[in-house]
Design brief:
binds zinc ion, alpha+beta, 23 helices
Length: 826
């Protein structure tokens, strides 16, 4: 009896113990043993809520965002009562430690560990592990929380995860079938890996094109954790992979960062060895491309790591792998839970060291380039500012001053006079190392064996003139962007045509049924000169629009689009506005192929581009339905990168050719070009290889993989020559920097327009193998060939790749609206 009274007394006086009684394990809460079913996203969220309710003094739960399909993005802050009470102070102290917040940090012995789960939706053991890790941190490993804050994101990609889980739940046998050939081990297109728009969120950290990334970065940059782990899965035959990572390492990675990865790996090894579990380190997963869940945090000062469990979408609840081992979801999540806890353990042991070393990372006084100076189109500068803001990278305007340094356009030293319209980004700022990574002309590659792109330099991607200067360029705080003038009554209005902002403006006008013209030749009117591609909106064309001037003004204000008024159709320099060289833009009906055969990434890029960027309607056609599709309902058919063996057969090809001959337009991207190259009726052809045959038989077994890199181009930047008198290139200069993603080489078109092409194949940034390079001279990059009244438009290089190559997007818009403009209504 006394015992009961004592318990009663303790509970009354200590409410945290009372609530802790309600803390349920994931298995108790879910109603099944964890790992014996896949939990849907809302169940994961509900479990986290139940834990936060049970132990509110140790778990603070926050919804930080919503996905495209309206699922919740959540963060749980897990620590001791004391730390949770001081959460905001600890966060601010950490930012003071980086210099991002002014003031001296007072308490610097709490480690901040951020665990990110399930960025790839079908690598689905992660979110299960997140639940178990949360529970174990609050029970058996409570000791670790005394000096660590663990931030858990149980699912970075809920839309992808639920796509996988819902498919698996409706497909799997009961009990599950371990036979690899069973349909439950064969996910349908597009699989659960990507998000709603089929983007790979683990390639999106630096470009932040997706809502999941954008919302996450807001929180990430407010916290700046010391350790960040991104949990993944690889094929079912692979053992576990953890840090230290593989070469190449980007040169800004500090000795501390790479040494501590080794300590972490050794701590994990202790647990894996005790159980006899297999693992590998220092192979395959490198640290170079800045847009991953390991590199991005690393370049932000963290110890950023990828952990890979064998499993993936193929494995379901259980699969018999090639080594006749039955790999189960239970085993997969147990491994991820082990490394998660081991990571927190090593962080806790080194909390104070983590803080001091973290602070050192943010000293950027000795970087080679002190300032990057960028000039060019105001819209492009603005879109770059938007990107920099996503990363809390500071920028200013240049003072009127001469700048000497590396000229990105020429690839040589040069100088120019900067003015207040030039953007300056200094490297001596807290995010200076990320500035270097994103802006430097050519990232130093210590090893060519990387399987992602090796170049991304921002000035090329944004189409801006830029100089990298080794001395600090004078600059001052930014001026606000100017607003545009209210429109007066006039004969017509002319808009420039250089940027995606201009393209969005056009798309909006077309959607509102404005009649818009574009010029194929430069002209001048009212003392102003207008380039090819300029848009002309006349009062005469738009009599059907009531309150035309006021409506146009509303759109112009919304898009901050400056318009020049013209008073007459008579131009000082022809063409006149009524000339056949100034054509009506047709309100194009655009279709795109989707599903089996298309690359889901490429299709997703096009889908996202039309829906979220251009904001112009797009009809998606299932490849299975192509032969039954009435193409005459569309003006444009986009064929994404993909493999179209069965889809583009003789029948569908002749259907497409007939439709093009009648005036249709095909836009084909990257791998889709294979369906036309060398085929009857097409002048598109592969370029025969010129590289000398080396005696491949004599290359040793050990050197084969490395030798193979000679044939590779893994995302490198080249300068192309551009025929900017062709409508596909309106708004561009006579040179354009392209991101080449592969070594496919097509000859220049004999009968057709070579709109952009490589002359000499000089690499401006990134890696290109010598054999691949030898074949790239005089090859096509973008082109058009006519067939009857219509056109085939070729994108050898995919300008929408991961949606970050801003300067390539207008080629795409031009292809849709300007190229071979037939101005026929449907
Ligand atoms: Zn993954």
């Amino acid at each position: 009896m006394q015992k009961f009274l004592l318990i009663f007394f303790v509970l009354i006086c200590n409410p945290s113990l009372l609530t802790a009684q309600n803390l349920q394990s994931p298995s108790d809460f879910l109603g099944y043993d964890i790992g014996t079913q896949f939990s849907r996203h809302h169940q994961v969220v509900d479990y986290f809520k139940s834990v936060a309710d049970a132990v509110p003094n140790q778990v603070k739960l926050e919804q930080y965002g919503t996905t495209n399909e309206r699922r919740k993005l959540m963060l749980a802050y897990v620590s001791s009562e004391e730390n949770i009470k001081n959460l905001e102070t600890i966060r601010e102290n950490n930012l003071k430690n980086t210099g991002l917040l002014d003031g001296e940090p007072t308490n610097i012995d709490v480690a901040i560990v951020w665990l990110s789960y399930n960025v790839h939706g079908n690598e689905a053991s992660s979110s299960e592990a997140a639940m178990l890790t949360l529970y174990k941190l609050l029970t058996e490993r409570k000791d670790l929380l005394e000096n660590t804050i663990v931030i858990i994101d149980p699912c970075l990609n809920p839309d992808g995860r639920d796509r996988y889980v819902n498919w698996y739940n409706k497909t799997a046998s009961q009990p599950y079938d371990t036979d690899v050939q069973a349909s439950e081990h064969n996910e349908p297109w597009p699989g659960g890996r990507p998000n709603h728009y089929l983007f790979d969120l683990n390639r999106d950290w630096a470009w932040a094109t997706q809502v999941e990334t954008q919302q996450r970065l807001e929180k990430y940059n407010k916290w700046m954790p010391h350790i960040h782990v991104d949990f993944h899965e690889q094929g079912p035959n692979e053992p576990y992979y953890f840090a230290p990572a593989a070469e190449p390492f980007h040169e800004i990675i500090s000795d501390w960062q790479s040494d501590f990865q080794t300590q972490i790996g050794q701590n994990h090894a202790k647990y894996f060895d005790a159980e006899g579990w297999l693992f590998f380190t220092r192979e395959r997963f490198d640290l170079f491309y800045p847009s991953y869940g390991d590199t991005y945090p690393t370049y932000m000062g963290s110890i950023g790591m990828t952990y890979e469990q064998g499993g993936h979408g193929i494995s379901g609840l259980g699969i018999l792998n090639d080594e006749s081992h039955e790999l189960t979801l239970v085993e997969r999540l147990t491994h991820h839970t082990t490394t998660g806890l081991s990571t927190v353990e090593i962080a806790s042991k080194n909390a104070s060291k983590l803080n001091t070393e973290f602070a050192k990372f943010f000293n950027n006084s000795d970087l080679k380039y002190k300032s990057y100076v960028l000039t060019g189109n105001e819209d492009k500068i603005n879109s770059l500012k938007t990107l920099l803001n996503k990363h809390d990278i500071q920028f200013e305007n240049a003072n009127s001053t001469k700048v000497s340094g590396y000229n990105y356009k020429t690839g040589q030293q040069g100088s120019f006079t900067a003015d207040a319209n030039s953007l300056v980004v200094h490297t001596n700022q807290p995010k200076g190392k990320m500035v270097k990574v994103l802006f430097e002309p050519n990232a130093k590659l210590t090893d060519s064996l990387t399987y992602d792109i090796t170049a991304w330099s921002i000035p090329y991607a944004y189409g801006l003139d830029a100089y990298a200067s080794t001395s600090k360029v004078l600059s001052s705080k930014l001026m606000e962007r100017q607003t545009v003038q209210t429109l007066n009554d006039a004969y017509g209005y002319v808009s420039k045509w250089n940027s995606m902002n201009d393209a969005k403006f056009l798309a909006e006008l077309l959607k509102q049924d404005f009649k818009v013209r574009f010029t194929e030749k430069p002209f001048s009117s009212n003392g102003s000169k207008f380039d090819r591609g300029s848009l002309i909106i006349t009062k005469g064309d738009n009599k059907h629009i009531k309150d035309f001037v006021s409506k146009l003004n509303t759109v112009a204000q919304e898009f901050t689009q400056p318009l020049t008024e013209i008073t007459s159709g008579f131009s000082q320099m022809t063409p006149d506005i009524g000339s056949p060289d100034i054509k009506l833009v047709n309100k194009q009906k655009v279709a795109v192929l989707s599903n089996e055969g298309t690359s889901s990434l490429s299709y997703g890029e096009i889908w996202h581009f039309f829906e979220q960027q251009l904001q112009y309607p797009l009809t998606s056609i299932h490849t299975d339905d192509l032969s039954e599709t009435n193409l005459s309902k569309y003006n444009v058919l986009i064929i994404p990168n993909g493999y179209y063996g069965k889809v583009l057969n003789d029948d569908t090809m002749s259907q497409i050719k007939d439709w093009v001959s009648d005036g249709g337009k095909v836009i084909a991207i990257d791998g889709a070009l294979r369906n036309f190259a060398g085929k009857d009726g097409f002048s598109l052809n592969y370029k025969p290889s010129e590289s000398e045959d080396t005696d491949d038989n004599l290359i040793s077994y050990a050197d084969r993989e490395r030798e193979y890199t000679n044939n590779l181009i893994t995302g490198a930047i080249f300068k192309t020559k551009v025929d900017n008198t062709h409508p596909m290139a309106f708004g561009y200069d006579s040179e354009y920097f392209t991101l080449k993603l592969g070594s496919s080489a097509y000859s220049l078109l004999d009968s057709g327009y070579n709109v952009a092409y490589l002359n000499d194949a000089k690499v401006y940034s990134g890696f290109a193998g010598k054999k691949a390079l030898a074949d790239l001279g005089d090859t096509l990059v973008f082109g058009e060939e006519r067939m009857g009244s219509g056109s085939f438009i070729y994108f050898v290089d995919n300008t929408l790749f991961r949606s970050f190559w801003e300067n390539g997007k207008l080629f795409f818009v031009n292809s849709v609206f300007f190229v071979n403009n037939n101005t026929f209504e449907l």
